[in-house]
Amino acid sequence: WSYLGQLPLSHPDPGYSFWAPDVVRDESGTFHLFVTYVPGDGDRKIDWAGDRYLFQYRSADLWTWDFVQRIPATSDRCIDPTVFRRPDGTWRLWYKDEGRRSETLALDSRDLRTWTPASDPGVSRLYGEAPKVFSLGGAYWMLKDPDSGLDVYCSTNLSTWTYQGKILDIPGRRNDDGSIGKHPDVVVAGERGCIIYFT
User: Fold this and answer.
1) Could you give the C-alpha distances from 67 to 10, 16, 37, 170, in angstroms and in order?
2) Exposure of 80 by Cβ count < 10 A (0-12 exposed, 13-18 middle, 19+ buried)?
3) Which of 132, 7, 1, 134 is nearest to 61 (CA)?
């Protein structure tokens, strides 16, 4: 990996920070970035007491991004979007709403532009931030970070989720891996899934 710098994302406030990006590509080849936006100086504001929003951008080259919208989520304290395309071609966006008991909620879209609330996504009352959804081995999987390792859920329909247990709940022994796994992402390559996680 070669470091290229910070993405030149437009933003409405002089002080700000971006967190927890997720990128998907639609059928036309356009990339869509979903990210948590926090107003205020990111180097000084560390108490998470204020608002946080879900912003959406789009790009043809993964570097130049145009602002699309603030996603119409359920409160002004939403973080950690993850987006996945369902078999019927529609898209579902899961996120954590810290303004509603930190539940995991979801929105649906047919065009990655208009978003409507989804019915209970099956994991709403099970605590954990940074939901990450992916497909592997003929099933759908969701990882969530409840600050005690990563909780694993499995689904056959992206609506009903069954708890599978916990992973990365024991600190590692490698450099910079001396704590439990937190806030994950997953890269699927063939029959193998690789977890990238925060420590």
Assistant:
1) 7, 15, 12, 40
2) buried
3) 7
Place of tokens 């036309």: 28
Percent of the chain at pLDDT exceeding 70: 98
**Bridge partners (DSSP) listed for residue 163:** 153
What letter does residue 52 receive in the DSSP assignment? B
| Residue of 158, 123, 126 lying closest to 139 (CA atoms) | 158
Query: d(Cα 84, Cα 73) in Å, to the nearest integer?
Result: 17
CB-based contact 94:119 (threshold 8 Å): no
Confidence of residue 45 (pLDDT cuts 50, 70, 90): low
Question: Residue 57 corresponds to which tokens in the numbers above?
Answer: 């951008």
Under 8 Å between Cβ of 6 and 21? no
Average pLDDT, the chain: 92
DSSP conformational letter for 124: T
Is residue 122 scored above 90 in pLDDT?
no
CA atoms within a 13 Å half-sphere pointing along the CA-CB vector of 94:
25
Cβ neighbours of residue 87 closer than 8 Å, sequence gap 6 or more: none
Confidence of residue 47 (pLDDT cuts 50, 70, 90): low
Query: What is the distance between the terminal CA atoms of the chain, rounded to a whole angstrom?
Result: 19
pTM of the model: 0.93
